[in-house]
Amino acid sequence: xxxxxxxxxxxxxxxxxxxxxxxxxxxxxxxxxxxxxxxxxxxxxxxxxxxxxxxxxxxxxxxxxxxxxxxxxxxxxxxxxxxxxxxxxxxxxxxxxxxxxxxxxxxxxxxxxxxxxxxxxxxxxxxxxxxxxxxxxxxxxxxxxxxxxxxxxxxxxxxxxxxxxxxxxxxxxxxxxxxxxxxxxxxxxxxxxxxxxxxxxxxxxxxxxxxxxxxxxxxxxxxxxxxxxxxxxxxxxxxxxxxxxxxxxxxxxxxxxxxxxxxxxxxxxxxxxxxxxxxxxxxxxxxxxxxxxxxxxxxxxxxxxxxxxxxxxxxxxxxxxxx
Length: 323
Known about the structure:
This protein is mainly α. It has helices at residues 2-32, 39-61, 66-93, 102-123, 147-169, 171-181, 183-188, 216-242, 251-264, 269-289, 295-309, and strands spanning 128-129, 137-140, 143-146, 244-245. 68% of the residues lie in helices and 4% in strands.
């Protein structure tokens, strides 16, 4: 039983990281119906930004408290990832918004390759390790729980609560939901869709509401920024948890986070986190009791089974076609 509970703790930690990435997938899909396959590489880029900040702090300053170092790493990672995602949306996705549905998808895959190769060229192809940032470990009834695991789960719960509140209780959330339901009708309420977007990357979400109408372009851009900020936090937590990052780290976590969003019900923020937790638990328990070689097979098999009986995902709502 102790071994089983230990694997539950490990699975919840891994699933929390997947859930943070999955929220970005589900937000972008909910607004514009697009799967941003470059989102996993934004997660990886956030991890590298955090790594660079850590190296700068330890090389030139030294003696920085761990809490302050982690906070600075997360903030810089969020700013960097937000800027990249905003640029990608403006340059690569927005010109194709009225095109056929496969064009943005192909472009997203292309942007994923561009980001991965860019990091490979600029940072090198080898693993980039860091010394342990948080090393405290607690023994509870024979179960080992590290402080970094607690930090990851707590940060995931806080961010889910904050983003749920933003989407459901703020003018930005109303703008996002209006754009999700009917983008053309939202634009008819007083939108200049070619309006120049100016967003600050810390409090930019508060600027998204437009009195008298919904600025669709700004709402979409802020959605990309919010998703990227979450991915950067996940990248920082990933670096803290595993102590290493490499340019290929965007692919596997990105695919699994997308799977988590689909499993939980794409378009649902709690569903994205729930899907991430389930995938983390499946991977951890399968690796503990069966061969680790087939943990991905188990994950995607369970996804297929769930979607056969509930195509909209666990917490997703069936889409109603408008005529």
